[in-house]
From TrEMBL:
GO biological process terms held by the UniProt record: aromatic amino acid family biosynthetic process
The protein's name: 3-deoxy-7-phosphoheptulonate synthase
Signal peptide: none
Full protein stretch here: 71 to 337 of 338
UniProt keyword annotations, A-Z: Transferase
Length: 267
């Protein structure tokens, strides 16, 4: 179903009015985790001013350690909903398990499946059957293109055709960076599938100063969008502070990207 051979045109996915794919460059930004209403509203207002189209924020977090902050749960989603009411930005958040499906159908505009759940096949089947919103499927930490596309097939074959792929860096032998951004994923996915692909340079590099150059490279390579972590106080962030941009830095980046897309086919 994802195969380009049977669907030559690019798919354009409508996320509560925001079109992803085709000639659109979709900008998603926000904190790794929802921490408070003040935090999210402040960040949402500033990214909107910079030109972002959607607000991201984790409410249920897939943390490596069970002793790390696990997210605000329902309360976190309600804060995102409040930020959407305030700014009009559709919201993106990660679905960690089947038991949250009804809540996500009610509150979230774009349902993220995280890297760690990319091959949680029972979850993918339920997402295909029951999630009524578009799905953002992140590439697993060590998964091939074929495995990633097959995970998209699980969702599509079970009834939800609205899948957006997200490359977020893969594990390599290099340990200096958190992961290695696979820019080749952009042309490869476009060749093999008709689905939009967006890039998450924040989780790829794990360092805030890598976000700007990698985001720009992704746009030039033909990405359909960027998902970037932005925090108003990265030093005190409860999750992923070192890779988060301050709102001013995000604004600088987006202004540069608006210049770059004049020489690409994106708008
Ligand atoms: C995230 O987007 O906050 C996240 C946890 O990403 P990933 O699943 O790519 O690690
Ligand atoms: Mn994160």
């Amino acid at each position: 179903l994802a195969n380009r051979a049977f669907h030559p045109e690019d798919s354009i996915i409508d996320v509560s009015g925001v079109k992803v794919g085709g000639n659109n460059l979709t900008l998603i930004a926000g904190p790794c985790s929802v921490e408070s209403k003040e935090q999210v509203i402040e960040i949402a207002r500033s990214i909107k001013k910079s030109g972002a189209h959607m607000l991201r924020g984790g409410a249920y977090k897939p943390r490596t350690s069970p002793y790390s902050f696990q997210g605000m749960g329902t309360q976190g989603l309600d804060i995102l909903v409040a930020a959407k009411e305030e700014t009009g930005l559709p919201i993106v958040s990660e679905l960690m398990g089947e038991k949250y499906i009804d809540e996500f159908n009610d509150k979230v505009d774009l349902v993220q499946i995280g890297a760690r759940n990319m091959q949680n096949f029972d979850l993918l089947k339920e997402v295909g059957r029951r999630i009524k919103k578009p799905v953002l499927l992140k590439r697993g930490l060590s998964n091939t293109y074929e495995e990633w596309i097959m995970s998209a097939e699980y969702i599509m074959a079970n009834g939800n055709p609205n899948v957006i792929l997200c490359e977020r860096g893969i594990r390599t032998f290099e340990t200096y960076t958190r992961n290695t951004l696979d820019l080749q994923a952009i042309p490869v996915i476009k060749r093999l599938t008709h689905l939009p692909i967006i890039i998450d340079p924040s989780h790829a590099g794990g360092k805030w100063w890598l976000v700007d150059p990698m985001a720009k490279a992704a746009v030039v390579a033909g990405a359909d969008g960027l998902m970037i972590e932005v925090h108003n106080d990265p030093e005190c962030a409860l999750c992923d502070g070192p890779q988060s941009l301050k709102p001013e830095k995000y604004d600088d980046l987006i202004q540069d990207i608006k210049q770059i897309i004049k020489i690409t086919d994106k708008t």
